[in-house]
Amino acid sequence: MCGIIGVAGGSVKTVVEGLRRLEYRGYDSAGVAVVDGEGAMWRVRVADGTRSVEELALRLADGPAAPVTSVGHTRWATHGQPSEHNAHPHVDCTGRVAVVHNGIVENHTELAAELAAGGHTFVSDTDTEVVAHLVEAALAGGADLPGALAAALRRVRGSFAVAVVHAGEPDLLVAGRRSAPLLLGTGAGTSLVASDLSALLGEADQLFTLDDDQIAEVRPDGVRVTTLAGDPVVPAALSVDPAWDLEAAQKGGYDDFMSKEMSEQPRAIADTLLDRRGTDGRLVLDELRLTEDDLRAIDKVVVVACGSSYHAGMVAKYALERWARVPTEVDIASEHRYRDPVLDERTLVVGVSQSGETLDTLEALREARRSGARALVVSNVVHSQMAREADGVIYTRAGPEVGVASTKCHLAQVVALELLALSLAQWRGTLPTEVVTALVDELHLLPQKVADALGRAKEVEAVAEAVAGARDFFFLGRHVGYPVALEGALKLKEISYLRAEGYPAGELKHGPIALIEPGTVVVAVVTRGAVREKVLTNVAEVASRGATVVVVAEDGDTTAAARAHHVLWTPPVADPLLSPPVTVVPLQLFAYSLARRLGNDVDRPRNLAKTVTVE
Ligand code: G6P
Questions:
Q1: 403 lines ligand 1 (CB under 6 A)
Q2: Across-strand partners of 162?
Q3: Residue 528 lies in a domain
Q4: Rounded CA separation 307/294 (Å)
Q5: Distance (Å) from CA 275 to ligand 1 centroid
Q6: What's the CATH code of the domain at 8?
Q7: C-beta neighbour count of 212 within 10 angstroms
Q8: 458 and 429: one domain?
Q9: Long-range contacts of 591-594 (CB under 8 A, 24+ apart)
Q10: Does 490 map to a domain?
């Protein structure tokens, strides 16, 4: 995710050091804007992937030694490809206002149209640039800099954090936020703002949090906070565990990146859903590149992916067939490449890849294009290799994932693929508009439900403790509960190194049931709907053979609970097709608890790599 650091009355070196400490978040480009004591503003931006901050440091090495006011940014592209002209800070038409921004300005298209009609010229492809022009417009209307930012933020929808400097205000930096973190720090003659505690550690004597819809005026001698209406507020002081070093701060107080990233899942889903509805209420996939006509013409979808992305693809099959009525195959990318698949110009091949670089998926997409099929990729990395080569793209907006075992990216993939299925249903006319609208409304409830499921970690831990010591695990499910079961088994294998098999519950009696014996743990995903009863029958079959049964069941499902030794309760989801992002959460937590009990490094499991660029 993007990172912000700003300093008033500090050194350029502090900003560069702050950017270095934000690098761990993952980024593709970086930049700073500096206002010196003479009231001159200059900008340096570099788009050289993970070398950008180092290059920036070299270019700034001869910068002013005297205190300056400056904002810096590491960018993880969401709107517009990673390039120097899309790197932050962005400036207004006068070049005197510079803005850095994290998050998404949801209504940037309409704001940009309005501003352009008013004579503003846009030079980047980002959503951020509208903020610079909104500030410019408010300044022209007579507002001061804090008032201009407040006016801008009143117009903006979405979740964001911004910091702004102005050439005419060498001692002032203003910042604001909504649903994205921003912290303030004060020290002797220097005040700071940052999106991430790691950038402030050791730099400030006192730390404060900024709340939603508050404006911070950051000056060398301290910070002042107001509401958007200009009323002063006392910022809440933030006390930091004195034992925290840089790494602890980067993990945000979590023990590891995996638990931090699991906690970020509600935001990952919410951000992936942001900005997807047009003014007429219809779904719009802005970055898609393929046209509605292209997609109306397809008569088959083939999803190709690896690992957790493959499981997301399996969920997509149910959604694509049910909602868009388009025959869908799901293939493991490394298998797909060598099976001479039947593809033509009416086939849509959907690659699902967090990194956008996994070689097998990339080659499967290349093969698809050679066969004349349309290639679409669902990726978390803007301008990744797959995103560049495919005909179309949908971005998940989970932010960088550090933990090798995918969590938040997997959930964001499921949601992005469901958006694709609903878009296809809308364009192909297979679902009435009001049904699409109702389902999208339900998708928007998922962040809250996922947060609710995450809040039950203690109960999951207790179940994990009860079965700790077991060596053999089966994960069963049917319908969309099946890919959830596979993902649960994969998580357990990846980080706990325990033998875990995911299986379609109905297939159990054709072999694997022979393996069930006292001591085997069977985790069954009980999805609401037509298959619920059938999964419960399968549960009874394994229980009678001595297995220890754990069920993932919706709150209130006492029948399921009565069949099990342990229950992982989940908040109910009205449409079972939308349930996987919720039901997979207790399984992630379950694997996490068992792995931690075994003392494993959950972020860097043995033998595994985050991005697999070999066959
Ligand atoms: C590796 C990772 C998995 C990931 C898979 C596919 O195996 O450890 O977490 O699901 O690659 O990666 P992709 O970047 O293509 O989604």
A1: no
A2: 101, 176
A3: yes
A4: 29
A5: 27
A6: 3.60.20.10
A7: 13
A8: no
A9: 591/405, 591/488, 591/491, 591/492, 591/494, 591/495, 591/496, 592/258, 592/259, 592/262, 592/491, 592/495, 593/457, 593/460, 593/461, 593/464, 593/465, 594/464, 594/467, 594/468, 594/492, 594/496, 594/498
A10: yes
**Mutational pocket test of ligand 1: of 360, 401, 611, the residue with most ligand atoms within 8 Å of the beta carbon:** 611
Among 217, 240, 263, the domain-final residue is: 240
Residue 306 designated active-site: no
Q: 341 with 318, same domain?
A: yes
**Can 2 be counted among the known catalytic residues?**
yes
Is residue 398 located within the same domain as residue 540?
Answer: no
Q: Separation of 245 CA from ligand 1 center, angstroms?
A: 30
Give the tens place of pLDDT for each residue, 237-250. 988 877 677 778 88
221 and 329 part of one domain: no
- Which pLDDT belongs to residue 530? 86
508 and 417 in one domain? no
SS3 string of 27-42?
A: CCEEEEEEECCCCCEE
> What is the CA(612)–ligand 1 centre distance, in A?
7
What pLDDT sits at residue 1?
A: 65
> Domain span at residue 79?
3-240
The side-by-side arrangement of strands in the sheet containing 499-504 is 499-504, 472-477, 521-525, 548-554, 566-570
pLDDT at 79: 81
CATH number at residue 515: 3.40.50.10490
Atom index in ligand 1 nearest the CA of residue 306 equals 6
Do 233 and 315 reside in the same domain of the chain? no
Q: Does ligand 1 lie within 6 Å of residue 613's CB atom?
A: no
Distance of alpha carbon 351 from alpha carbon 334, whole angstroms: 12
Same domain? 61 vs 147:
yes
Q: Is residue 246 part of a domain?
A: no
Q: Specify whether 350 is located in the same domain as 424.
A: yes
Q: What is the pTM of this model?
A: 0.83
pLDDT in tens, 556-605: 999 999 999 999 999 999 999 999 999 999 999 999 999 999 999 999 89
Q: What percent of the chain has pLDDT over 70?
A: 100
For the chain, the residue count is: 615
- Answer whether residue 247 is part of any domain: no
Provide the domain count of the chain.
3
H-state helical runs in 211-291: 246-250, 257-263, 265-273
Q: Write down the residue that tokens 């006392």 correspond to.
A: 234
